[in-house]
Design brief:
It is built from one helix and four strands. The longest helix has about 35 residues. With about 100 residues, it is an alpha+beta fold. The protein has a four-stranded antiparallel sheet with strand order 1-4-3-2, with no helix packed on it. It has two domains: about 55 residues, Roll (Thiol Ester Dehydrase, Chain A), CATH 3.10.129; about 35 residues. β2 and β3 form a beta hairpin.
Length: about 100
Amino acid sequence: MGTHVNVFHLAAAPIGATVNITAEITEVVERRVEFRVEAWDEKEKIGEGTHQRAIINVAKFAARMAEKQTAGVAGLQSVAQKRRNVETNSRHSRQDCPRHGVTS
C-alpha cells in the first residue's frame, strides 16, 4: 500500500508522447519499502522523486475498511437524521414560539 509520494515535475511531456517510468528499491526497513522513481519522455527526464510503500496483511486491511465503511454509512445516516430534525424544528409554528413572542 502506498504511504508516501514525493515527485518533482521537471518538464512537460508532449501530448501523445510515450512516457517511461522506472522504480528502484533503495531501502527496506521492516514493512516499509522505499523506491527512487524517474519518468522520461523520448527526449529528457520529466520527473523524479521517491515513493514509499508498506507491506500489509490484505485480509486485515480489508476487514478494517469494511468496518470503516459501515461506520461511515451509520455516520452519514446520523447526519441525515440531524438535518431532518433541524428542518422539522425550523418549520415550527409561530403560535408555539417564545422567540416570536407567542406561546400557547
